[in-house]
Amino acid sequence: MASKPNTTDTKIRVSKIMADRGMCSRREADAWIEKGWVKVDDVVIGVGHKADPSCQIELAPGARQERAELVTILLNKPVGYVSGQPEPAYEPAVRLITKSNHFVSRGEPELQPMHFEGLAPAGRLDIDSKGLLVFTQDGRVARDLIGESTSIEKEYLVRVEGEMKANGLKLLRHGLSLDGYKLMEAQVEWQNEDQLRFVLREGKKRQIRRMCEQVGLTVVGLKRVRIGRVLLGNLPEGQWRFLSASEKF
Q1: Cα gap 200→25, rounded to integer Å
Q2: Residues tagged active-site
Q3: CATH code, domain with 195
């Protein structure tokens, strides 16, 4: 007698389905499910619930409101601050997010204690680099910027010293490897005699500095000026602002 197919084999946790669909992060999904804010096929579910990946998911107004209130912050990080966890003798860049450092434009909300709840850097910027650094409470933004499948461009202005190899520019654009991994194609061009412009779609540790070393150059200054469609613009060094509702990475 043929055995009955096990229909549960195809089911996965609803929190993963929600994250895969870009609705939120898995952590946020579990929090919303715990609050009773998630329906699957018209039924309110509990934490750990599994469903078919094609299921219908509906969010309660509370979840939609909470998501709308999540903030993303853009900081012009100076040299000497670390992006994430503090290191001996160095401060984390999040300490620059204060009311006195707020670059306020028209319509900007005021900084509140709740804006620090779950706020985390979405990506990194080396301690000896400066420019655009993103902090967010929104798991969807973090996923877009640092998820495994991200293809969002990051643009850098890089001051260099040394003599570039004859085929160095070609190698920087495509042909180098780091830690046994072949790097993705990059846009690299000279801006002037001592400055390069890099546009990358990946972010290996100290990637640009290590790429330059392989072609005979030493980086003496590095500034990130764009992430996706969001520009550093006129944001002063050491100051921050909120990402506006009209801005998308």
Answers
A1: 25
A2: 126
A3: 3.30.70.1560
